[in-house]
Please model this.
Amino acid sequence: MSLPLEGVRVLDLSRLLPGGFCSLLLADFGADVVKVEDTGMGDYIRWSPPFYEGPPTLHDSARSALFLSLNRNKRSIRLDLKNERGREVLLELVREYDVVLESFRPGVLDRLGVGYERMREANPGLVYCAISGYGQSGPKREASGHDMNYLGLIGLLGLTGERGGEPVQAAGQIADLGGGALMAAFGIMAALRERDGSPASPGSGLGQLVDVSMADGSLSWLAMVAAAHFADGTVPRRGELPLAGSMVCYRPYECADGWVTLGALEPKFWQAFCRGVDREDLIARQFERPGSDTHSEVQEIFRGRARAEWEAFARSHDCCLEPVLELDEALSSELVREREMVVEIEQPGAERPVRQLGIPVKLERTPGEHGRLPGPALGEHTEAILLAAGYSEPEVAELLADGAAAGPAQAQQNAPFRV
Model:
């Protein structure tokens, strides 16, 4: 069975999470993704623990669980972009590829002489996606930052947590993934569609710049919150948003041995909960606030039963009530198992199969494939990619001798990189 993105060729110059997850989505659905890594340590996340154990192999640079979680189904080439011949090789590859993905600070590749304008000269059909913290233009164009910085700056972090409490950091990287990786994948596909066209609309044949700001993307998550503010001028505060802690019907609650979530927004669900606990007197008090008498009464109700008892309650009372699971419980749950959201890959050098999260988008006829290729060793495919690009064996040997390119790394870097 063919994969939906077969034939799409991607050069991924990014490192770490946002670009890595974006190109993972493309690779899982069949795109040919080549990681373009430097001739030093490559993608830093390669050296981030924990590592899978096994006998020494070519794949010693691909033992990090974090690296493998983002880089299955990809190949790796090492190029020195500070070397003129390394830059020439990159431009030669650009002529044959559909997409370039990068996550440098704006201007880095321009200063090296291989920025968007130069790549567009080499390939007018190129879709060039740049993921950055604050975008390719604007007052913070060159500022450094990480996920939490972006969330703080666009107002999302400040709205997360209890009223009067500290801002609460999410366990998942909202800006990196939701604001960066997903927006980039969507932008790339939209630009490819415009270039290639459809039966109803001929394509332009031209690529374009896809400018993805993780701050912009994260701000879009506040679409409804911002809309309410624009309409009535009210400035929301932490713990006061209807879907972020201000209503007794829509909150996490501590039970006798853990926590559960109650999401009874619609009256029918709140009524089902109240009747199920034999407290019909609470029905009229659905939208009262935390700290109220109603809140205290609901807290007391939840503390009276264990989590398993509340799970049984939810099976017979349709009220949007679910347990708060620890990660190990979630990963072994029936839901995750039946949805195939934990998968295994065979990774060279690992003494056991590598377990990872599966593909979240399920296509009916042409589903993605998580196990086409293992995570690549650093520079594992350098020579093969150069030969396929038209370089002769003597030319490849010369590029390697000159340091413009490099083959597989022989040993793990000295210092672990932690994320």
